[in-house]
Amino acid sequence: MSASRLYVLIPCAGTGSRAGGHGPKQYQRVAGRPMVEHTLQAFRALKGVFAGVALVVSPDDADVGLVLQRFPADGEHLFRVGGATRAATVRNGLRSLRQAGAGAHDWALVHDAARCLVTPTQIEALIAACEHDAVGGLLAHRLADTLKVASPDGRVASTATRADKWLAQTPQMFRIGMLLDALERAGDAVTDEASAIEAVGLAPLLVPGSGQNFKLTYPEDFALADAVLRSRKIQP
Ligand SMILES: Nc1ccn([C@@H]2O[C@H](COP(=O)(O)OP(=O)(O)OP(=O)(O)O)[C@@H](O)[C@H]2O)c(=O)n1
Ligand SMILES: C[C@](O)(CO)[C@H](O)COP(=O)(O)O
């Protein structure tokens, strides 16, 4: 069998309802550029590693062409097949990748457009950990805080053990055929790819990520992301 290729799939069809602001959050400017451009740049920096990079936007997206310069570049795809949920967007995007020539045995690294702080080093660590694994895996981060379980009245019901808890991040890396099959079975309720893989009885690998690879979700996340991105550009 020929060597498996690596593809990147970036779900970019959300509305950013929790972020506030005008328009979808993935096009808002962070550190002087649209958020999704930083996300793309982390993968573009790994020249020659990927057979293709696909951005999946909503069919009625009116922003992507206006906001992104020089996209799609060579080896990049724009799929206007986003769905009502993240799971639907990823499923549709994987089908489009297959139609564009990706094989069932090839790998997809699915990465949120809204995680614009991911670094090439973190992406390389995920690939190194997963490319010889039978299942695949995801970047994830250990909890730094004590974990409380709430009761319905808003009081603490108990304190959970945190040693075995991880926060799921992206990219999440699985074989395209296996992932598409798992997502088709899972429906729209799963919030990440690993959940669909778990539901078919497999155990994804947890690969240590970084607290800086957070998802921009709430208004206050933008200032923090801005500061981190700008600090990375400052030469010593
Ligand atoms: N129907 C959807 C929903 C989400 N996403 C993408 O999935 C990633 C993570 O989702 P989230 O942070 O929840 O983004 P939104 O759905 O945009 O935000 P919100 O839930 O606050 O509306 C984002 O890159 C978002 O664009 C997507 O492609 N299609
Ligand atoms: C995929 C994800 O980023 C993993 O933490 C997350 O589940 C997506 O966020 P959402 O708010 O559930 O769409």
3D structure, described in words:
With 236 residues, the protein is an alpha/beta fold. The chain has a single domain, classed as Spore Coat Polysaccharide Biosynthesis Protein SpsA, Chain A, CATH 3.90.550.10. Helices cover 31% and strands 22% of the residues. The protein has 7 helices and 11 strands. The protein has helices at 35-44, 64-67, 86-99, 120-130, 176-186, 193-199, 219-233, and strands at residues 6-11, 29-30, 33-34, 52-56, 76-79, 107-110, 136-142, 147-150, 156-160, 166-175, 205-208. The strands form 3 sheets. Strands 5-4-1-6-10-7-11 form a 7-stranded mixed beta sheet, with helices on both faces. Helix 2 (64-67) links the parallel strand 4 and strand 5 (76-79). The mean pLDDT is 96. Bound molecules: cytidine-5'-triphosphate and the ligand C[C@](O)(CO)[C@H](O)COP(=O)(O)O. The site of cytidine-5'-triphosphate (CTP) has 22 residues, from helix 3. The site of the ligand C[C@](O)(CO)[C@H](O)COP(=O)(O)O has 8 residues, from strand 10. GO terms for molecular function: 2-C-methyl-D-erythritol 4-phosphate cytidylyltransferase activity. Catalyzes the formation of 4-diphosphocytidyl-2-C-methyl-D-erythritol from CTP and 2-C-methyl-D-erythritol 4-phosphate (MEP). It is an enzyme of class 2 (transferase).
